[in-house]
């Protein structure tokens, strides 16, 4: 099931907003499409990104996939467990964030609800 | 996906949950369960691949032997009926047309098995080079090919039922062996670095043969395997893949396939170019830093680019990340290399090929 406590993007990331912080991870559709995830290149702490920029890379056996942030801001937390166990994203994608961003402004116009995201995925 | 070519096993792949991708114009499964699981099952038990997309070209006529001696780099003089030989095929400039298997059916009668994406190109190349009494027929659509690979392959064949003899010596084959009641050409070959056979049958018989082998293999833990595991297994065994280690711009000498190039042979297309000292050579690299080597990454020694990676991917049997690379001969023995991954320079060292050898 797609959790309805968060937003989604058409690039298959999820964004969970808590106050002025946004946790970002990838959706079940994304992890399934990638297959066995074997490496995650995490961003540096305190690095800043504009909305739409690539901030991480997820590599599966077959593919290299850039991960984008829909939220501009500063990286305040990274999921270091993914350094040694990148496969956690396969087994528990909605609890395994990649990074947490602190933001000043959040523009949700381009973001999808769980329902809208499911419809987007099923359209193929 | 509708405009893609399908093998006779397309419906089987879909029914087994295969993740279908466009592979050079063919709709084929990249994986069913997981590339890592499928890779491991071939190393430890047995796996079944559909390789029906491979091309089959039948060669007959009283000049077949002389024709082959002219177009391939290996020497087939010592071949007997029932033998298989691997060989590159070259352009006059030494660049590689393809790498193929030659099956000697009878004197002046050979089956040539070629890479799927090269089938038409090879057929046209062979027709262009043909002389005298030589007949070439592209029979690819008539044949299916299943690869049963892994240490328990013989148990699965016996369980499925065999009438005839399964060849056990590497690079030999038997025609008209019944496997699960299906008329097969059984070949002791493979592209995984593991023991196994490749089974050629009529296209229409493929679903029946596939089903029977999956059923027979159940108690041995057989898995259907996709192109992902096929690639990672051949990579670990350092077997070249056309378009990567060998191309129209990379000679088989550069790819270090000397065992299949007979420069002492009187003449063959490309011999003069291949006799020249090579400027580049294929080597193995192992990454010292954290990261994953992939194809087409630039390779440096110090500030000088010395080559590029030709294949790289994570493989479950190996610690750390590995790649095959084509580098300048002068740089091949350098103590340390750097590989550029997304603008980061990571350290690597040369490591012997193959990465994996069956124990």
Compact overview of the structure:
By secondary structure, chain A is of the alpha+beta class. Chain A has one domain: OB fold (Dihydrolipoamide Acetyltransferase, E2P) (Beta Barrel), CATH 2.40.50.100.
Distance between the termini of chain A: 17 Å
Uncertain stretches of 5 or more adjacent residues of chain A: none
Number of helices of chain B: 8
Order of helices and strands of chain A: EEEHEEEEEHHEH
Mean pLDDT of chain A: 95
- Relevant CATH superfamily of chain A: RNA polymerase II/Efflux pump adaptor protein, barrel-sandwich hybrid domain
Tell me what the CATH architecture of one domain in chain B is: 2-Layer Sandwich
Indicate the radius of gyration of chain A in whole angstroms.
Answer: 13 Å
Largest interface: A-B, 11 and 15 residues
Could you tell me the CATH topology label of one domain in chain B.
Alpha-Beta Plaits
């Amino acid at each position: 099931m797609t959790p309805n406590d968060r937003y989604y993007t058409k690039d298959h990331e999820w964004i969970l907003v808590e106050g002025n912080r946004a946790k970002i991870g990838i959706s079940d559709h994304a992890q399934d499409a990638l297959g066995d995830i074997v490496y995650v290149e995490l961003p540096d702490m305190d690095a800043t990104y504009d909305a739409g920029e690539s901030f991480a890379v997820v590599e599966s056996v077959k593919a290299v996939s850039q991960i984008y942030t829909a939220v501009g801001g500063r990286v305040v937390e990274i999921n270091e467990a993914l350094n040694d166990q990148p496969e956690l994203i396969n087994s528990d994608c909605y609890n395994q964030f990649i990074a947490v961003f602190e933001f000043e402004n959040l523009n949700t116009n381009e973001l999808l609800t769980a329902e809208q995201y499911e419809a987007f995925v099923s359209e193929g | 996906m509708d405009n893609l070519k399908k093998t006779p096993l397309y419906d089987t792949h879909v029914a087994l949950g295969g993740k279908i991708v466009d592979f050079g114009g063919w709709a084929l499964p990249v994986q069913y369960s997981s590339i890592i699981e499928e890779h491991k099952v071939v190393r430890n038990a047995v796996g079944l691949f559909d390789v029906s997309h491979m091309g089959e070209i039948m060669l007959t006529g009283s000049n077949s032997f002389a024709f082959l001696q002219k177009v391939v780099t290996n020497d087939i003089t010592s071949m007997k009926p029932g033998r298989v030989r691997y060989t590159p095929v070259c352009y006059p400039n030494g660049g590689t047309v393809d790498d193929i298997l030659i099956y000697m059916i009878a004197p002046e009668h050979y089956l040539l098995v070629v890479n799927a994406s090269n089938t038409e190109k090879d057929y046209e190349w062979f027709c262009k080079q043909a002389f005298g009494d030589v007949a070439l027929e592209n029979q690819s659509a008539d044949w299916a090919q299943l690869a049963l690979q892994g240490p328990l392959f013989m148990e699965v064949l016996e369980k499925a039922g065999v009438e005839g003899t399964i060849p056990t010596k590497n690079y030999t084959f038997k025609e008209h062996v019944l496997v699960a009641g299906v008329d097969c050409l059984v070949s002791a070959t493979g592209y995984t670095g593991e023991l196994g056979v490749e089974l050629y049958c009529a296209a229409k018989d493929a679903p029946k043969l596939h089903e029977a082998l999956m059923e027979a293999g159940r108690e041995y833990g057989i898995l259907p395997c996709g192109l992902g595991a096929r690639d990672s297994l051949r990579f670990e065994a350092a077997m070249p893949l056309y378009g990567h280690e060998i191309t129209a711009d990379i000679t088989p000498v550069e790819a270090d396939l000397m065992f299949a190039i007979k420069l002492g042979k009187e003449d063959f297309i490309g011999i003069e170019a291949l006799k020249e000292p090579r400027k580049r050579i294929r080597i193995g690299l192992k990454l010292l830093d954290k990261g994953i080597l992939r194809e087409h990454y630039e390779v440096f020694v110090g500030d000088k680019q010395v080559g590029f990676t030709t294949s790289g991917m994570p493989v479950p049997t190996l610690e750390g990340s590995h790649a095959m690379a084509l580098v300048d001969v002068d740089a091949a023995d350098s103590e340390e290399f750097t590989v550029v991954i997304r603008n980061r320079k990571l350290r690597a060292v040369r490591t012997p090929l193959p990465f994996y050898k069956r124990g």
